[in-house]
Amino acid sequence: MTESAAVHAQRVVVAAALIESGHLLAARRSAPADLAGFWELPGGKIEPGESPTQAVTRELREELGVEAHALHRIPGEHRLTKNMVLRAWRVCLRQGDPQPLQDHDRLRWLSFHDLYEVPWLPQDLSFVEWVSGELRREEACTQ
Ligand SMILES: Nc1nc2c([nH]c(=O)n2[C@H]2C[C@H](O)[C@@H](COP(=O)(O)OP(=O)(O)OP(=O)(O)O)O2)c(=O)[nH]1
Q: EC number(s) (predicted)?
């Protein structure tokens, strides 16, 4: 890779929309100071050699102590910085009960009705909006 290509290489942050029984898992960030207290979809940066879905699985193992599987990407993306972009995946839980082991100090399972009760990071809102549509459809099917 040329020097200028390396400077412009894009780092991807993967975020997981973990949905179970009509609820989305939201995580409250504990650091850094400017993000602490805001809620997000758990995840992190893709490591060299990893696919996005492998990164989702690794991050959820590290941060929440669960085994999870990325099903498909959620449309859209958010540019975080010149070299970093946020993308999200719809994820299902395979094993375990999520715990805030790393980067977060609280977790909540949110239903369609309380999805916006927490202060989301603004950059996550388009993904939360997509999830809202999914949860509304799921709820309609179970009535
Ligand atoms: N994981 C995650 N990060 C988000 C979201 N929204 C958002 O702006 N970010 C930002 C916060 C951070 O600047 C960056 C991801 O950093 P991170 O600290 O979670 O990444 P990481 O687990 O790989 O940790 P590290 O390499 O920085 O130690 O993306 C989101 O929904 N999930």
A: 3.6.1.55
